[in-house]
C-alpha cells in the first residue's frame, strides 16, 4: 500500500495516517449510529417503532445473559454447518461425476438450471409437510441451496481443465485416479471455492428465511417471534447479530480461502490493493 | 471474483461448436431430462400409497395448474410477483449504480464503505422483514422495501468494485486530454465497470427473487410466494408444486432472456476474460 507522495511525511504522521486509514471502515457504522441516536432524541418515536440504540444494546445484553442468545446462535450455526457440509460434499462428488462425463453433464444441465432457480425458500411449503418444523427442514433448504451452486461450479471447473495436462499425466503412466487427484482436483479447486463462497451467501439467507416460519429456535425465529410482542429492540439487535456473524464468516473463513486461491491462481489481482 | 460463478450456468453451452445445431437439437435436449424426471416422479408415486398430503401425481399437478390458469388466479399472482421484481430492479439500478460510481471513484469513500456494505449484505433482506412489518404493516410496501434492499446492496457493491478495478491511468489519460467528468463516466467508468455491474445485478436478482418469494409468504398480499404458502395451509400439494414450477420457469426466463443477453453484450463489447 505504498503511495507516491511528494514530500516524505514524518514517521509520526505516517503512523497517524495508517491508523486513520484502518479506522475509516468504522465511520459509516458510527454515522448511522449517530443519526439514529439524534433522530431518536429529537423525534422520540414509540419504542415499538424505533427503540433507542441503548435499548437495543440492553435487549441484546439481556438475551445474552439469559443464555437465549447462545441457544439461538448455536442452533443457526449448527444448521448452517450441517447443510453446507452436506451441500459441498454432494455437490463436489456429483460435479466430478458429471464433469468427467460430458454427455451426463449435458443431459443434467437443464435440470440443474431449473432446480437452481427454485432452490432454497421456494421448497419450504412443500418440505414443511415432509419434514415438519425444525432442524431437518432448515438443513434441507440450505443443502438444496448450496448443492446446485457448488455442483455447477465443480462441473465448470472440471470441464475447463485443459486436456493437455491430463494427457501429460497419462503419458507419464498415470491412471484415471492419478489424473483426477493431481490434475483435475487442483484445476477445479478455484471454481469449487467460488461455488462454496457464493453458496454460503445464499445458504445463510435461506437459513434465516427458513427459521422465520420453519423452526422453534434460531436467529430467524428469535426476530420473527419478537415481532408478535412488538419488540423492535430484539428485532434490530437480532439483525445486527446476523450481520456480524455473516461478516465474521466472510472475514475469517471465506476471505482467507479466496486469498489463497488468488495467491495460487492469480485471479482478480486488484483485490489485494484494498487491504 | 464472482464472475466465475456468473458464467458457470453457461457450462452446457460453452463447448458447442455450431450454434445452429444447438438450436435444432436444443428443444429436445432440454425437454428430455424433464421427461425423465416426471417419469421417475410418476413411478415413485405409483409404487407406494402416498397420502395426497405428502405427494401427488404429475397429473394432479397439471390439473391444479390448468385450474389456476383457467380461473385467472395464476396470472394475477404471477403478475404481482413480476411487477414487484421489475419495479425493484429498475429502482435499484437507478439509485444503486450512481451511488456505486460516487463511492468507487474515491479511494477513501470506497475503503470506508466496503466493510459497511459487506455487513449489510450479511443481513439478508428477509431478516429485516419483521422490522419492515412493524413499520409498514402487511402491505406491498413491506415487500418492495425488502426486495429493493436485497437488490441494491450487491449492485452498489459490485459497481464500486468495478470502478475500483479500472486502472487509474485510463481516467488520467482522458483527463490530461481535457475530458469533462461526464466524458470520464461515459467513456471510462461505465464501460469499465459494466461487466461488474451486471454480475451484481445477477447476484442481486438471485437474492432478490428469493427474498420476494419469502416476503410474499409472510406478508400474504398476493404473489407466487403467497400462492404456495397459502396452499400449504390447506394441504394442497398439487397447488404448491404447480406454483413452484411456475416460479422456477419464470426465474429461468428472466435470467436467460433478460439478464444473460445483457451480460453477453457487455462481454462481447468489452471483452472481459472468460477462462
Supply Rg of chain A: 24 Å
CATH homologous superfamily designation of chain A:
MetI-like
Can you tell me the CATH class of chain A? Answer: Mainly Alpha
Euclidean distance between termini CA atoms of chain B: 13 Å
Q: Could you estimate the helical fraction of the residues of chain B in percent? A: over 70%
Q: Which range best describes the helical content of chain A: under 10%, 10-25%, 25-40%, 40-55%, 55-70% or over 70%?
A: over 70%
What is the secondary structure topology, with strand pairs?
The complex is a heterodimer of chains A (275) and B (275).
Chain A: H1 11-23, H2 27-43, H3 53-66, H4 68-99, H5 102-117, H6 124-131, H7 135-160, H8 163-171, H9 176-214, H10 219-228, H11 232-265
Chain B: H1 3-6, H2 11-14, H3 19-47, H4 58-70, H5 73-104, H6 107-122, H7 125-136, H8 140-165, H9 168-176, H10 181-219, H11 224-233, H12 237-270
Helix pairs in contact in B: 4-12, 5-8, 5-10, 5-11, 6-8, 7-8, 7-10, 8-10, 9-10, 10-11, 10-12, 11-12
Structural summary, described in words:
The complex is a heterodimer of chains A (275) and B (275). In chain A, helix 4 runs parallel beside helix 7 (135-160). Chain A has helices at residues 11-23, 27-43, 53-66, 68-99, 102-117, 124-131, 135-160, 163-171, 176-214, 219-228, 232-265. Chain A has eleven helices and no strands. Chain A has 275 residues and is an all-alpha fold. The model of chain A is unreliable at 266-275 (pLDDT under 50). Chain A is flat. Helix content of chain A is 79%, strand content 0%. By secondary structure, chain B is an all-alpha fold. Chain B has helices spanning 3-6, 11-14, 19-47, 58-70, 73-104, 107-122, 125-136, 140-165, 168-176, 181-219, 224-233, 237-270.
Amino acid at each position: 500500500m505504498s503511495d507516491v507522495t511528494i514530500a516524505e511525511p514524518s514517521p509520526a504522521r505516517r503512523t497517524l495516517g495508517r491508523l486513520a486509514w484502518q479506522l475509516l471502515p468504522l465511520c459509516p457504522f458510527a454515522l448511522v449510529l449517530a443519526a439514529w441516536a439524534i433522530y431518536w432524541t429529537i423525534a422520540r418515536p414509540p419504542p415499538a417503532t424505533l427503540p433507542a440504540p441503548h435499548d437495543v444494546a440492553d435487549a441484546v445484553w439481556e438475551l445474552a445473559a439469559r443464555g437465549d442468545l447462545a441457544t439461538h446462535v448455536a442452533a443457526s450455526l449448527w444448521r448452517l454447518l450441517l447443510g453446507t457440509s452436506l451441500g459441498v460434499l454432494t455437490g463436489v462428488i456429483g460435479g466430478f461425476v458429471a464433469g468427467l462425463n460430458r454427455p451426463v453433464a449435458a443431459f443434467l444441465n437443464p435440470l440443474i438450471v431449473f432446480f437452481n432457480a427454485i432452490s432454497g425458500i421456494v421448497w419450504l411449503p412443500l418440505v414443511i409437510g415432509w419434514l415438519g418444523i425444525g432442524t431437518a427442514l432448515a438443513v434441507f433448504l440450505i443443502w438444496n441451496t448450496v448443492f446446485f451452486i457448488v455442483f455447477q461450479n465443480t462441473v465448470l471447473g472440471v470441464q475447463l481443465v485443459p486436456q493437455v495436462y491430463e494427457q501429460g499425466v497419462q503419458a507419464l503412466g498415470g491412471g484415471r485416479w492419478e489424473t483426477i487427484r493431481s490434475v483435475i482436483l487442483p484445476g477445479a479447486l478455484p471454481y469449487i471455492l467460488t461455488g462454496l463462497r457464493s453458496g454460503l451467501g445464499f445458504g445463510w439467507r435461506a437459513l434465516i428465511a427458513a427459521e422465520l416460519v420453519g423452526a422453534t429456535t434460531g436467529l430467524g425465529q428469535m426476530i420473527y417471534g419478537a415481532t408478535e410482542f412488538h419488540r423492535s429492540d430484539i428485532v434490530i439487535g437480532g439483525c445486527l447479530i446476523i450481520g456480524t456473524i455473516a461478516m465474521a464468516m466472510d472475514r475469517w473463513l471465506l476471505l482467507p480461502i479466496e486469498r489463497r486461491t488468488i495467491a495460487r491462481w492469480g485471479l482478480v489481482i486488484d483485490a489485494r490493493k484494498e487491504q | 471474483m464472482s464472475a466465475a460463478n456468473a458464467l458457470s450456468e453457461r457450462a452446457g453451452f460453452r463447448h458447442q461448436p455450431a450454434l445452429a445445431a444447438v438450436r435444432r437439437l436444443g428443444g429436445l435436449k432440454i425437454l428430455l431430462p424433464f421427461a425423465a424426471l416426471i417419469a421417475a416422479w410418476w413411478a415413485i408415486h405409483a409404487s407406494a400409497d402416498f397420502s395426497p398430503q405428502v405427494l401427488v401425481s404429475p397429473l394432479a399437478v397439471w390439473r391444479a395448474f390448468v385450474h389456476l390458469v383457467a380461473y385467472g388466479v395464476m396470472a394475477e399472482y404471477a403478475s404481482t410477483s413480476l411487477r414487484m421484481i421489475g419495479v425493484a430492479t429498475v429502482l435499484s439500478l437507478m439509485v444503486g449504480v450512481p451511488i456505486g460510481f460516487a463511492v468507487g471513484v474515491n479511494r477513501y469513500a470506497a475503503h470506508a464503505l466496503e466493510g459497511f456494505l459487506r455487513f449489510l449484505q450479511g443481513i439478508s433482506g428477509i431478516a429485516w422483514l419483521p422490522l419492515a412489518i412493524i413499520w409498514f404493516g402487511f402491505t406491498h410496501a413491506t415487500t418492495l422495501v425488502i426486495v429493493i434492499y436485497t437488490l441494491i446492496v450487491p449492485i452498489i457493491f459490485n459497481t464500486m468494485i468495478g470502478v475500483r478495478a479500472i486502472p487509474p491511468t485510463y481516467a488520467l489519460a482522458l483527463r490530461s486530454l481535457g475530458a469533462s467528468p461526464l466524458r470520464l463516466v461515459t467513456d471510462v467508468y461505465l464501460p469499465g465497470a459494466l461487466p461488474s455491474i451486471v454480475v451484481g445485478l445477477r447476484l442481486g436478482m438471485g437474492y432478490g427473487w428469493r427474498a420476494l418469494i419469502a416476503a410474499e409468504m409472510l406478508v400474504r398480499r398476493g404473489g407466487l410466494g403467497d400462492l404456495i404458502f397459502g396452499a400449504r395451509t390447506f394441504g394442497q400439494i398439487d397447488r404448491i408444486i404447480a406454483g413452484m414450477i411456475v416460479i422456477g420457469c419464470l426465474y429461468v426466463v428472466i435470467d436467460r432472456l433478460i439478464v444473460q443477453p445483457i451480460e453477453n453484450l457487455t462481454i462481447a463489447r468489452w471483452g472481459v476474460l472468460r477462462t
